[in-house]
Amino acid sequence: MSWSGGIAGLVRDRWTDESTDRVFMHIGPDRAEDEGGQVPEAAESYLQLYVARAHLRNVREGWKGYFPVVQTSVRLAAPGGAREIPYIVGSDDFQSLGKKDELFFRDVSATPPIPYLGGSVNLIAGVIAVVKNDYAKELIGLLGSISSVVGGQALTTALGVIEPLKSGVEGLLRLGDKQLKVGVITDLSSNKRKPTLLSGYYAVVDLPESPDLLSSLCVKNDKLMRDGSEIKEDYLLLRLDVLDALGREEWRKFLSLEKLATKVREAAAEERSYQTPFRAFKVGVQMSDGLIASDKIRIIKGLEAEADEIAGKKRTPSRRLGGSLKLAPSPDAAREIAKKTNLG
Question: Which range is least confidently modeled, 22-26, 27-31, 233-237, 318-322?
Fold first, then answer.
């Protein structure tokens, strides 16, 4: 897949230069505290990308006059068409270590949970040095705030800020001198050492590739380790999670569905017919790009069962959308129902 704009040119030149030391690898669960190794099922799971850690060393000299910025962008097939979801982490999100000659940040969500439809999952990621000036500092802060919407909201909400975020990143990289410290362009679903898409950790580090290195890198507490110590080079550690179903906290991000569910519960509690608001809720769920079919079935059947019990004075209304899941089919049962319906 062809990338253009953003950090694509910087990363492509570095990544395709055979003289440049670079390692990109998936670190299996046997060397990552049993994290990862799951193969996502198309139409039955979500993907979510995290920047587990970015660690920068020699800050006083190597980063003098520059702001550190991490940018990621994921491209994949998604409900409603192919999506590119960018994310940016700026200097204000980094913390100092030791004598302030090292910077790091960890565990930020770079995408919302995205229904996985199969096919390629293309990734571009890099740690960039952007020349320091007042305008760059303000823009980096603004883009970081916009990015928090991407990782912290449902897919349907995040899509509304993606184009402004992409435009902002383009503007940032036109401000002046910039340097790529470490980066990668790859298809996560077809890597030369791992031809199958797997959950877990992916490491990007500028080191000469060797069998010894590939067998010795491991992850502990979201740190890239070698021989019992965190590696000394700058690195970027990503984590791809595979989810079979959304947790209750994730459901809180579907604000419009939560409002519709509240109307259903209110009608049931007031002994009015709740069928009309329930039909509106069902349509809203069916139209949601951010849900896989089994989760649509779970929340629809869960709310219907809850409304019945509220109307029968058997329970009080839940305060959150995810509260209905207590009465919903299990994820496995919902998947079986989904296979027999066209709900998607």
Answer: 22-26
Range of the domain at 97: 8-243
CA angle 268, 302, 291 (to 5 degrees): 120
* Pairwise CA distance, residues 343 & 94, whole Å: 43
Residues whose CB is less than 8 angstroms from the CB of residue 121 and which lie 6 or more positions away in sequence, other chains included? 47, 74, 75, 76, 187, 188, 189, 197
* Domain limit, last residue, from 223, 243, 263: 243
- Cα(242)–Cα(264) distance, integer angstroms: 32
Indicate if 232 and 285 belong to the same structural domain. Answer: no
- Is the domain of 30 the same as that of 165? yes
Residues 92 and 213 in one domain: yes
Sequence-distant (≥ 6) Cβ neighbours of residue 209 within 8 angstroms: 21, 22, 23
Q: Give the residue among 341, 272, 244 at the shortest CA–CA distance from 301.
A: 341
Q: How do 223-226 and 229-230 pair as beta strands?
A: antiparallel
% pLDDT > 90, the chain = 40
**Distance of alpha carbon 126 from the chain centroid:** 15
In a domain, 289, yes or no: yes
Q: Which phi and psi angles does 316 have, rounded to 5°?
A: -90, 155
Within a domain: 1: no
